Amino acid sequence: MRAPLLIAGILCLIVGLIWLGQGTGYFPYPASSFMVKQTKWAYYGGALAFVGLLMVMVSRRGGYRSY
After folding, report:
1. What contacts 36, CB < 8 A, 6 or more positions away?
2. Which pLDDT does position 62 carry in this prediction?
3. Which residues, 6 or more positions from 55, have their beta carbon under 8 angstroms from its beta carbon?
4. What pLDDT score was predicted for residue 15?
5. Is residue 66 part of a domain?
6. Is the Cβ–Cβ distance between 41 and 22 less than 8 Å?
7. Rounded distance, CA 60 to CA 22, Å?
8. How far is residue 47's CA from residue 2's CA, in Å, rounded to a whole number?
9. Is 4 helix (H, G, I), strand (E, B) or coil?
10. Which residues contact 3 (CB under 8 A, 6 or more apart)?
11. Which range of residues forms the domain containing residue 11?
């Protein structure tokens, strides 16, 4: 279960950072994108990147063991 959570977390983090960059105008690619310089996409990207970071941290934690 750790590997799928890690992969999903990394993907969410990457997509979130791209959305954040497009929403703020720092990553205006493609130039015709509806997301470029749109503040709401910067917020969505920040939230998704945060969730992705949490997923990565939880997957790297190791979990609990019962003895």
Report:
1. 22, 23, 25, 28
2. 64
3. 5, 6, 8, 9, 12
4. 97
5. no
6. yes
7. 29
8. 22
9. helix
10. 59
11. 2-61
